[in-house]
Amino acid sequence: MAHIHDNEIISYEVDFSNKKLSIKTEIKRSEGDEENMIEFEGLFTYHFENQLPKSILLDIEERPNIDFFTDNKRLLRDKKSFGWPCQYNSMEALYELFEKAQFHYYVITASFGLVGWVVSRSCECIINGPDGLKIERI
Q: Are 119 and 133 in contact (CB under 8 A)?
């Protein structure tokens, strides 16, 4: 996604009550600075690593839900007894839950710092730049 490439992560917030994860970013551009808010609505679960000040985003990419299961096989196995990401009987049942709830698997990559993924129903970027406010779905 072009508008978040090279954005610096300023902060992120998880609102469990409203099932929302927000990432505030900014970028300095010659045509004017942008302050962006990436919002994941209908949050199911997330996992971040390398949470460092001045983290620089590379991209947020939606990947097929099946990739969540192959990418996180070990994490799912290790955390199942803790009820993460929820109580489920089998991988097939968890996959069916993903499909029924219309969850999407978003992978966050970085040039520096924070990387990870979010599973939610939607993701959009609210861009507040020199040309005004725009909203892009990811």
A: no
Cα of 39 vs its chain's centroid, Å:
8
- The 8-class DSSP code of residue 121 comes to S
Residues 6 or more apart in contact with residue 133 via CB below 8 angstroms: 126, 127
Residue count (the chain): 138
CB atoms within 10 A of CB 100: 8
CA 35 vs. chain centroid, Å, equals 17
Query: DSSP assignment, residue 90?
Result: -
> What would the pLDDT profile of 11-46 be if each residue is shown by its tens digit?
999 999 999 999 999 998 887 788 999 999 999 999
How far lies 62's CA from each of 58, 59, 124, in Å? 14, 10, 11
Against a cut of 0.90, is the pTM above it? yes
